Amino acid sequence: DLYMALAERAVAAERGIWAPAHASGAGDATDGAPEGQKAAAAPIRLHCGLLNPTADNDVGEWVSVMLDEPYDTRGYYLFDMGSGAIFRLPAGVQPAGELIIPNPGQGVWNNSGDVVYLMRGGEVMDSWAYEGHEARSGEIVCRD
Questions:
Q1: Per-residue pLDDT at 18
Q2: Closest CA to 108 of 142, 77, 72
Q3: Which of the 8 DSSP states describes residue 133?
Q4: How far apart are CA 90 and CA 104, in angstroms?
Q5: Which residue, 20, 46, 108, 109, could crosslink 114 as a Cys pair with Cβ 3.0–4.6 Å?
Q6: Is 80 exceeded by the pLDDT of residue 6?
Q7: Are 49 and 61 in contact (CB under 8 A)?
């Protein structure tokens, strides 16, 4: 009951994950922009990954996001469609720079190629499709 009451207050106040897209960095690239102009992209994007670790069953893989400025990552997570695996980003304001999100279990991203999704709620905020030649064993791969 307490949780539901607090969630209803947050929705009414448009706070946290219920904040408008222009306040949270969510939404498409035209939110809040004048007709024909694009708004600035969210200051969070997929960055690098160790997608093919040398350990058995790909234990130790990770993906990072780059934060262009301090940013509240509450409600953000990485998603793998094939396995349905979800890896939540830490809640709260994170400092600018690279934020590594580890996969503590068996690998989920295919070495032969896959797509990593950065999600907020049910919305895709960024995606990164890579091919197998990029996921070399034990090598960190970064987007262009």
A1: 67
A2: 77
A3: G
A4: 15
A5: 109
A6: no
A7: yes
Enter the DSSP assignment of 38: P
Instruction: Provide the whole-model pTM.
Output: 0.71
- Mean pLDDT score of the chain: 83
Q: Given the structure tokens 């295919």, which residue do they identify? A: 110
For 70, the token pair is 């301090």
Cβ burial 106-132 (10 Å sphere, 16+ → b, else e): ebbbbbeebebbbbbeeeebbebebee
pLDDT in tens, 17-46: 766 654 444 444 434 444 444 445 789 999
Q: Which helix (H) or strand (E) holds 7?
A: helix 2-13
Between CA 77 and CA 86 the distance in angstroms is 6
- The amino acid that residue 60 corresponds to is G
Distance CA 30, CA 120 (A): 17
Which two three-digit tokens encode residue 42? Answer: 């969210």
What 3 state SS string does 86-97 have?
A: EEECCCCEECCE
Number of Cβ atoms within 10 Å of the Cβ of 7: 13
Are the beta carbons of 42 and 112 closer than 8 angstroms? no
Q: Which amino acid is at 93?
A: V
